[in-house]
Automatic annotation (TrEMBL), chain A:
Keywords: 2Fe-2S, Iron, Iron-sulfur, Metal-binding, Nitrate assimilation, Oxidoreductase. This is Nitrite reductase (NAD(P)H) small subunit. PROSITE patterns: RIESKE (PS51296). The keyword rRNA-binding does not apply.
């Protein structure tokens, strides 16, 4: 039997992620996009748009959202929910900064 | 009954305030203070006015010698406590003095953080913390020269402004992209930087100090990028650290600061702590308001049984630099369910932003107009639901309540003499009279008759309000023609204003044009970035985060998240070596699809992002550069074989195509730009449906443009016929530049030409040789900065973060 427990995994220094940009964490087959806003907040989403699986990590980051590069869906960084008239949600992950290092809950 | 003995280590503002509270309620204590600084208690937050010369030390003393005498306090000035013996309840000073206590208060404050750079201990390198530092800075400034301030936070900027006022040349070095980034958002940080630069203070953001130079004393500062700045004074103002050493050595619980509970009691029940050295509720504090609250709590508990507890509250920040009005409070970071209300006034240089969540204010950032800061802070603290006044909230308290809660009311209240259009000096009365006398009903008519808002256009909204008031229901506000929901300005407006106002950065455009969002959206940011790239070649630094992914990584994203890579083949000509290199790359990186494109080159489809750089390196090594198949810019120049091989060919169409592509590659344009050169009117290169097409004829070259063969199909229109290849190149350069300067982002050349008129474009580009030469010269100038192969830059290490995962976790196989 498998018991799933959450562990905090250090993925690297905050400075390695560009402001208003993202980097990916490969977790086995899954890619997780770690976003950094212009004010150094961080968010983690599965790197998959709920629309057609576009890589959100490659989108333009603005005002707490990312715009998917494939078809311009706008996804909230905090909840993973599609904004506006679009409906859908991307998985989010807990994430935090400690001593300048980014920790991701996996 | 003998009094209890209270010993205080430190004589700063927090313990001073604590004693005031204590003496108000009890005289149960004999008090002894040890102060490492040889002074009475003074107002540390007033050091900036002392530095700038607006105040003196005497002005900022809080408690003079008399106060200590009056309260029977024993004050040991310039005597540091070195040990606490908790079991015996006594302290020992460096002079060996031992004093017993019943209650002890540790108020050791904080130390400035000095970055241990090479040279940090040279004479002339100062912190900015106490009166001695201030005195040393004043002394240094008397000798003149240049001061470098490391750190663009609150203290650093106050130091910079003070030193400038003292007559020094000042440079501020700041690691982050904008000043005071902890208190201000990007937009307000930008305004602050402009203000300081206007005072002659040089501000270098995103600058990293490598070392401090000098032999016997400081002579300069070297940055990580190699720049050297001469300096006779270096001030480090990069932050403070709670001074916990004494408490730590005494075995008290210490984390970032000295840990206390909400009653300010440390882990020893007889020892309290107040001030910047404290960590309470997991937080340490540096601003005076929370420190004074600590003082009140500690005094209350020292006086006897008390219920009082310290609670966190947002503290507003202000900068104590005369003439720089800024105010920030609460949380202004981004997040879900948060809404921004932004009001910018370009004329007055003000910026107001209120951040809402669940109809409550959670933060505010104000620049230039800070009158309502206190009111927003009250609403923040009270948690009042603001939905009733949401529409007028941003205008401030004066607009709330009563029947006048309407943005139009502000305009209604203006007198007839009030100036509406600053550029043309048009008053409200002039506009109203013109509307009434001439029966004007549209903005265009008002502009034509009064010139109001006809120059820079930033007062358009005001003019519309005047029209709405004058015409009543007869006036319909025009539907927003803004380039995106962040602005009411159209693309044309924005382009004109960027040039007219000399705006050279995205934050500058957003401020001057009164953007209604803090940092734009995925629609306007790429457009603004293009306009700035096109208008300020060699000056504007391309903002990568405002580009779509294809242009950021110079490859086309595909539906599965892989990329396609297209090397440039000038004029569609390749060689066996190039083809071999492409084949080798396809094998080596297991690229699944190799396709010949419609633009006469080869597309490698399905390249993984992390393989992009090695693929480019290999293609670069074979002499190929990026084909820009992803760009809103020059794509391809397609050719037929022309007079070299074809029995019908009239001119060397291949050679001309290669020359054109060599001239044009690297250019950014409003939308993609595809060319073709056909060697005869049979048109094998399909020139007549291209953005710009050349058809060779016996007498010369026909230049065609405005074709489309996508969603929309349209044949080209003839611009004219020119006799030589050099003429073709000049005309195409000029036409491209005219399109670059006046096109709207994502507007193909045929739409642009429809908008401007084909006759007009011919008059400018073909009929007027002077204008043609001028446009072509500007194009050539821009190209001198644009023709850099992006692949080679990336292979050389630029923006390496774009291409690799930050972290890879291999999962263990399941049991």
């Amino acid at each position: 039997m498998n018991v799933q427990t959450k562990t905090w995994v250090s993925i690297g220094p905050l400075t390695e992620i560009p402001r208003q940009g993202a980097r990916c964490v490969k977790n086995g087959d899954m890619s997780i996009a770690v976003f950094r806003t212009s004010h150094d907040q961080i968010f983690a989403l599965e790197d998959k748009c709920p629309h057609k699986n576009g890589p959100l990590s490659q989108g333009i980051v603005h005002d707490g959202c990312v715009t998917c590069p494939l078809h311009n869906w706008v996804i909230s960084l905090e909840t993973g929910a599609a904004q506006g008239a679009d409906v859908g949600q991307t998985t989010t992950f807990e994430i935090k900064i400690e001593d300048g290092n980014v920790l991701l809950a996996l | 009954m003998s009094k209890k003995h209270l010993v205080i280590v430190g004589n700063g503002m927090a313990p001073g305030r604590m004693l005031e509270h204590l003496f108000e309620v009890t005289d149960a204590y004999d008090v002894t203070i040890f102060n490492a600084e040889p002074r009475v208690n003074y107002d540390r937050i007033m050091l900036s006015p002392v530095l700038s010369g607006e105040k003196t030390y005497a002005d900022i003393i809080i408690h003079g010698e008399g106060w200590y005498e009056e309260h029977g306090i024993t004050l040991h000035q310039g005597e540091k406590i070195t040990e606490i013996h908790r079991n015996e309840r006594k302290v020992v000073s460096e002079a060996g003095r031992e004093v017993a206590y019943d209650k002890l208060v540790i108020a050791t404050g904080s130390n400035p953080f000095i970055i241990p750079l090479p040279g940090h201990d040279l004479p002339g390198v100062l912190a900015y913390r106490d009166l001695d530092d201030t005195g040393a800075m004043i002394e240094a400034s008397d000798k003149g020269g240049r001061a470098v301030v490391i750190g663009g936070g609150l203290l650093g900027l106050e130091a910079a402004a003070g030193l400038k006022q003292r007559g020094m040349e000042v440079t501020v070095i700041h690691l982050m992209p904008t000043l005071m980034e902890r208190q201000l958002d990007t937009a307000a940080g930008y305004l602050l930087q402009k203000e300081l630069e206007g005072r002659g203070i040089e501000v270098l953001c995103e600058a990293n100090t490598k070392q401090i130079l000098g032999q016997d004393r400081v002579e300069g500062v070297e940055l990580a990028d190699g720049r050297v700045i001469d300096a006779s004074l270096v001030v480090m103002a990069v932050g403070i650290r709670p001074n916990v050493q004494l408490a730590q050595e005494a075995g008290l619980e210490v984390n970032r600061g000295i840990v206390t509970d909400a009653t300010m009691k440390t882990s020893d029940p007889n020892i309290y702590s107040v001030g910047e050295c404290v960590e309470v509720g997991g937080l340490v504090y540096g601003l005076v308001a929370p420190l004074y609250r600590m003082a009140k709590v500690a005094a209350d508990h020292l006086a006897g049984a008390s219920e009082m507890a310290f609670a966190h509250a947002e503290t507003p920040t202000k900068l104590k630099v005369t003439g720089c009005d800024l105010y920030s409070v609460g949380d202004f970071a981004e997040g879900d369910g948060r809404e921004d209300i932004v009001l910018r006034d370009a004329m007055r240089g003000t910026y107001k932003r209120v951040i809402l969540k669940d109809n409550k204010i959670i933060g505010a950032v104000l620049y230039g107009d800070v009158a309502d800061g206190g009111w927003y802070n009250e609403l923040l603290k009270s948690g009042e639901d603001i939905s009733e006044m949401r529409e007028t909230l941003i205008f401030g308290q004066a607009y709330q309540g009563g029947a006048g809660a309407d943005p139009l009311a502000a305009v209604a209240n203006l007198s007839d003499d009030a100036e509406i259009c600053g550029c043309n000096g048009i008053t409200k009365g002039t506009i109203v009279t013109a509307i009434q006398a001439k029966g004007l009903t549209s903005l265009t008519e008002v502009r034509a008759h009064t010139k109001a808002s006809a120059s820079c256009g930033t007062c358009t909204g005001l003019v519309e309000n005047v029209m709405a008031l004058t015409l009543g229901d007869a006036f319909q506000l025009p539907a927003s023609e803004g380039m995106c929901p962040c602005t009411t300005h159209s693309h044309g407006h924005v382009r004109r204003l960027i040039k007219a106002k000399g705006l050279k950065s995205i934050p500058a455009v957003m401020q001057a044009l009164e953007w209604t969002t803090p940092e734009g959206c995925a629609k306007c940011r790429p457009a603004l970035n293009y306009y700035l790239v096109a208008d300020w070649p060699g000056e504007y630094v391309d903002d990568q985060q405002s580009r779509f992914i294809n242009e950021r990584v110079h490859a086309n994203i595909q539906k599965d998240g892989t990329y396609s890579v297209v090397p440039r083949m000038f004029g569609g000509i390749t060689t066996p070596d190039e083809l071999r290199a492409i084949a080798d790359v396809a094998d080596k990186y297991e690229i699944p699809t190799v396709k010949v494109t419609g633009g006469q080159r080869i597309d490698l489809l399905g390249v993984k992002k992390e393989d992009l750089i090695p693929v480019w390196a290999d293609l670069n090594a074979a002499g190929m550069i990026s084909g820009a198949a992803y760009a809103k810019g020059l794509r391809t120049v397609k050719t037929c074989v022309g007079s070299d091989w074809c029995r019908f060919g009239t001119q060397d169409s291949t050679g001309l195509g290669i020359k054109l592509e060599h001239y044009l590659w690297g250019a950014w344009t409003p939308a993609k730009l595809k060319l073709a050169v056909s060697g005869c009117p049979r048109n094998c290169a399909e020139s007549t449906c291209k953005d710009i097409g050349i058809v060779c004829v016996d007498s010369g070259y026909e230049v065609l443009y405005g074709g489309a063969a996508g969603l929309h199909i349209q044949g080209t229109t003839k611009l004219g016929t020119v006799p030589t290849e050099d003429d073709v190149i000049e005309v195409v350069g000029a036409l491209t530049q005219y399109y670059r300067e006046t096109g709207f982002y994502l507007e193909r050349i045929y739409k642009w030409a429809d908008r401007l008129g084909y006759d007009h474009i011919r008059e400018v580009i073909l009929d007027d040789p002077e204008q043609r030469k001028a446009y072509n010269a500007r194009f050539a100038h821009a190209q001198s900065f644009a023709q850099v192969d992006p692949w080679a830059e990336f292979v050389g290490g630029k923006d390496a973060h774009e291409f690799n995962p930050i972290n890879i976790r291999k999962l263990e196989a399941a049991e």
